[in-house]
Amino acid sequence: MSATIPVTGGDLGRTTREPVTERRDAGYGSRSMTVTATFMPGSISVAPGSETPLALTVHNDEDERRVVSLEAVGDLADGVRLGLTSLSLEPDETFEIPVTVAVTPTVPPGLHRPEVRISADNDGAVPVVAAVSMEVMSVADHTVALDPVASKGARRGRHTVRVTNSGNEEVTVGVHPDHLDSAISLDSEPAVTVPPGRHADVTLTAVPSSTYWNGPSVEHPFAVTTTGSDGRSFELAGTYVQRPRMPAWLGPALAGAAMALLIGAIVWFAFARPWVEDTAEQAADDAIEADREALRERIVELEEAAAEAEELPLGTPTDLRLDVAAAGGNIGAARETVPAGSTVSITDVVFQNPTGAVGTVRLTRDGDVLLESELANFRDLDLHFVAPYTVAGGSEIALELDCRTPGPGVPECTVGASLVGFVD
User: Fold this and answer.
1) Are 123 and 22 contained in the same domain?
2) Integer Cα distance of 397 and 260 in angstroms
């Protein structure tokens, strides 16, 4: 016996067991193909996010050689991988083909029926269809994150509670904020419902009970407790930093402007006015214009000082993208070296797993692991830090990928990471 394409699954073998026949009814004027096929086992229960190996047995009942083609159809067809898609059967020969059915994490629970259609080449016979009954178990799971962890403002602070449904059932999550002290109040939606594989955001607003014009900023810690219909609960810690209504640089700027006006007045009354009385009107206009120019220069100096006060303490905003791909069972990495003399502060990290691959991703600094996560836990995962990761000049930032199983329909695990922060 020979197959027309190489085997891509497990070992194939000959057997004398007669398989159970399963055919589509032939229409008027067509004939049935005398090839039978069956799955072993024919009925299974699986968990979402798993791969299940099966065996498809094909038998030639005719007294002549048959060349047949195999194709995954129907329910979950995108997740069905065949050991081979074409083979040649001798008379009364039985062949066993390995089949793997991958069930993504968001497949709805309940009964599903993956099918494989077997067609004879160029003879017009009605195809044979083999099916397996797969009971997908119900999995309810979710994660929550607070963004940003710390907000700033004179009159209010805004946060977002992001709920990500990583199971295959709809989940409803209740949001319960606690201000921890009476100096602020917190307002948010009481609950949110998220479909499988999706995320939803709940806006949280922190409002101080009173405001003030000047002085140091005041930190108001708070907590957010979430309770999900899947039985999971989380507690998130956040901070609202209340700022004065008058910026810190405004006082020195007003004082400087008043001093400039005072100096201008002194100059005018002590020197300019007597000189104007003894000179022509044009000379007086020149003196006034000189005073105005001095005042403008002083205002420019004050504005520059205010701009320096507003400058971010961590340096210039920057971003970095790392992409890595690796075949199943392999390890890949993408690396980036920080230029000498620079320091990079990483405040935000977003991992992307667009194809639904299974494996492990790590973010490292000079070989030391900063972050590590299982790819099966997320499609997109964003992380934000109050205290940033710092990477000195000459150090290496790397994104490492340990690919166990590529996503459905792709030959490799493809993972990316977007890093946002500052460079000094």
Assistant:
1) yes
2) 51
